[in-house]
Amino acid sequence: MGLVHCGKCASACSVGAAPSNTGVAKEGCLACGDCQKFCPTQAIEWQRNFWRGKSGQVVPADDIATPKYQEARRRFLKAAFVALMATAFWEKTVWAAEKVLRPPGALPEPEFTAVCNRCGRCIKVRCDLCLACQEVCPTGAIAKVPLEKVRMGRAVIDQHRCIAWNEGKACLICGEQCPVLAIAADEQHRPSVLVDKCVGCGSCENACPVDGEAAIRVFPG
């Protein structure tokens, strides 16, 4: 039947990212697939680039019937056998290497991905260590842990981008925003991360005034 604009995909989406008239899921899409599951006319189909790690793109079935997508589908089928043979090895190498930041108390990665239902409740607001994510998680993918045991990642300062380090200007906004006082300043008012205190909440990265990519970023581990 194709697109009928019934709105059931929008009603099913827990984060308001259902496909619009452009045929592409909005920013914030959790790739849960609920829009496709609840579509009564099967007008939504997922396309995912496994090798470059891009987010899934929702494309109307009407568009997929065009020659462009038919050709893409033929190429995909030709590569399907090779992809299936490589899946086990690829998952153990690429996915293992690409660690991601998880909420405080998140279960180990294999368990987390198996239990999490992608509802998005834990990421409604930026982390300020309130630990509300542990309370709102409906599946138990985020365990309840005390604040002193929270370790999501570690902040790293890029001295080539940092205003204080690279330009010699006074800027300690990252330290001012850190809720656990994990950023200290030296005699020249340049920030440094106290690794033993940093919990990886990301407050410093969100507050960094540098244009483009922040001069301080949080990495898993």
UniProtKB/TrEMBL annotation:
List residues of the 4Fe-4S ferredoxin-type domain: 20-49, 126-147, 189-221
GO MF annotation, one? metal ion binding
Organism phylogeny: Bacteria, Bacillati, Bacillota, Negativicutes, Selenomonadales
Q: Which cofactor does it need?
A: [4Fe-4S] cluster
What is the scientific name of the source organism? Answer: Thermosinus carboxydivorans Nor1
One of this protein's Pfam families, by short name?
Fer4_4
Report the SUPFAM superfamilies cross-referenced here. 4Fe-4S ferredoxins
Entry protein name: 4Fe-4S ferredoxin, iron-sulfur binding domain protein
- Which InterPro entries does its entry note? 4Fe4S_Fe-S-bd, 4Fe4S_Fe_S_CS, PSI_iron-sulfur_center
Q: Kindly state which keywords UniProt assigns to this record, in alphabetical order.
A: 4Fe-4S, Iron, Iron-sulfur, Metal-binding
- Function field: Ferredoxins are iron-sulfur proteins that transfer electrons in a wide variety of metabolic reactions.
